[in-house]
């Protein structure tokens, strides 16, 4: 039986070919791809079927969903009505109670191995898992059941990717990121960290999966390289001030008013991998540094436990570059690079150690980005 | 005995059939509801349960107080920012930090834009499907829908028959695809839905328009806070410096271009709320005028802390543009003063919450709060500890504590604010409420209902959009007068702080009264405690057996089809529950962790 393609659905819903083409161009742009890829996307969208999505919520604050609906291109409306079939999302679904829960079973029965599991939040393991109850049972059970039958898993935001705020020390509920859940069925997982992730990054990830029927290229930590391969510092519009040694010394000082570099009031841009300074937020309008606040590093693993947001990086990592930063940015830039590299190396060592010591730790994270073929 | 009279005036009867709704959807977080219905399908007992907790207050211990806004902001991403604002106010209150006028105006603009966004998204995307039937919209005549739209809102540009026909076509194909997405398994044949097809089509169309528009509202916060969801805040003011002239003004966070942008969005918010939200609210309400269930505590006991200080640093009731006060025992004309530092006023009880006190017959002020987890089902519960079939509300049954004001269960939120403001003679509120009552041709008693709660939220959204403009004008006037300060950093360095201080900060979150209590010792957080709106509204029973606002509001409601709980959803949604907010501080492995002493 023929399944409808994304293009057929859009056409059937009264969207013109012209609008469809425009949509594909915008999607290509959002993905940072060349115009040639727009045609590829268009072709894919004309031939690929819609994917059912179960969007589950564990311990979280719903900021990922809130971010998602703020997407400017594509619009959340078009994603929900035309791109995916959002069969379960307890934040917006009409049904409640057992009618809501029945949808999970129906989706599994009908699309076994062919739906996407989108996870917002994470499961707690303390208290028999009953600090997050769905339908009278631990959320963990709902998660495991859906994961068992899913084609792939999207870990939305820092909760699902790393644990985020409820997993900050001392992690009272033993909130656990998706890929570290003991016994989780082995499925491809893509992490889209951030608290929350940028809206257009979320919708672009969905569009990419839909278009190419695979994950985008992932880094070693399981994040899409296209959005997470550069530090915010690398593409920050205030970077020339850093290089010139022009720093904000205190909030609302002369430097703050002139848009100088926020490094000395705690900016984590030099060690944070995210697309804030390139894609920016809310339709490309601004990002934290542009609005005068240092980056707090919200897409990084364990960012809550790395000291105060207003302490400069040197104070945290003890690389002793404070004098250099005060003198001249050019020198400091090199040293911050070293600091970041050292940080990355430390993370890699930590990862390797975790992997060696405990197969449950990090072990489930995919190093491959390919789905199984779906035909 | 299957009947029980509560001190706050309700008769609970558990003899009828038990109906369970879990999960309650279209809310923030996780929640369960159980009711007993009699042979006529009328709810005679209601049990509401918070089904999640995360323990953020414990996590805050030992942290830098200047960071607390970021942690507490992650309590909730729906009312994003209101916890952050409450937090910076608590720290500033503790340390005696005065913020600049511009910072006050910018914070108010951000808080008001949250009210606008949150109320609008709640109405269309969380609540509308309780009143609006998208499947029925397929039967609408687009010409008649156009006529209806032009009648209720002559100024809204999207109103042609062709426009509605296009939307209807898209909807029709969507439904025919058999993949109903978020509309799947809804209660679309239930007679509880009363709108004619044209009104359904108009409302569904605006569901989609509002989904497109809502993303604009919060961009105001992207200008001032750098991103949304979860913008950035600052103890001592706001992080966005102002530079309108001279060298590198273009690189400054706030310049003429960004102010123009905020102006544009603010105007569009007022337009959308006045041309779409309010007319839809009135149109939908006009078909449900006879459905006046759900009053609960709203004509008995109401609480508001107040918010939106007109001048900076003055948090007295007279300077707050959102009302502050308490009403108890149904004495609506007597609004009592509220003092968050008075240990006799706000107290939390746990005999029906999954926590343990040494003496559970008493409540504790947040200053002296104790939080020790104790997850245990009562003897009459059915199922197992990890597979609950029915709860035993005679024992512990929720992760939410039961806060009480002078011993009374209280309702908080837009309706509480509007009733309190109305009774205080607030001119703007009175004008809006009287207009709505006259438009719908209903008496003032109609306010005390599910629909009244929903209406108050809409009116408040309109009020907030207008006030956003007021504070933008105020900000620009102040800059014009030569004041460009946005932050007071004299006490930003922890080395300048006394060794021990305490403070309390409060706001009116979209869902109601919110306060944080903080104790700072040697530059670190010693204790932190939040009592939030859904803790008030969603509270379980207390030591006296008083039921909370959710439970009270469900009482005596008739449900058309018990297996399709649309009336239960309708009333619970009218509070806009936020469960991630409401659940309390928690210690690992049953350890006692939160002990808050603040004054």
From TrEMBL, chain A:
UniProt catalytic activity: H2 + A = AH2
Protein name per its UniProtKB record: hydrogenase (acceptor)
EC number of the protein: 1.12.99.6
Domain NADH:ubiquinone oxidoreductase-like 20kDa subunit: start-end pairs: 61-208
Subcellular location: Cell membrane
Family that this chain belongs to: Belongs to the [NiFe]/[NiFeSe] hydrogenase small subunit family.
Keyword Transferase: no
Source organism per UniProt: Novosphingobium ovatum
Main location: membrane
Biased composition range(s): Polar residues: 366-375
EC primary class: oxidoreductase
Automatic annotation (TrEMBL), chain B:
InterPro entries, sorted: Ni-dep_hyd_lsu, Ni-dep_hyd_lsu_Ni_BS, NiFe-Hase_large, NiFe/NiFeSe_hydrgnase_LSU
SUPFAM superfamilies, per database record: HydB/Nqo4-like
Subcellular location: Cell envelope
Lineage: superkingdom: Bacteria
Pfam families (alphabetical): NiFeSe_Hases
Cofactor: Ni(2+)
Keywords per UniProt: Metal-binding, Nickel, Oxidoreductase
Oligomeric and partner information: Heterodimer of a large and a small subunit.
Function: This enzyme recycles the H(2) produced by nitrogenase to increase the production of ATP and to protect nitrogenase against inhibition or damage by O(2) under carbon- or phosphate-limited conditions.
Family: Belongs to the [NiFe]/[NiFeSe] hydrogenase large subunit family.
Name of the protein in question: Uptake hydrogenase large subunit
Organism encoding this protein: Novosphingobium ovatum
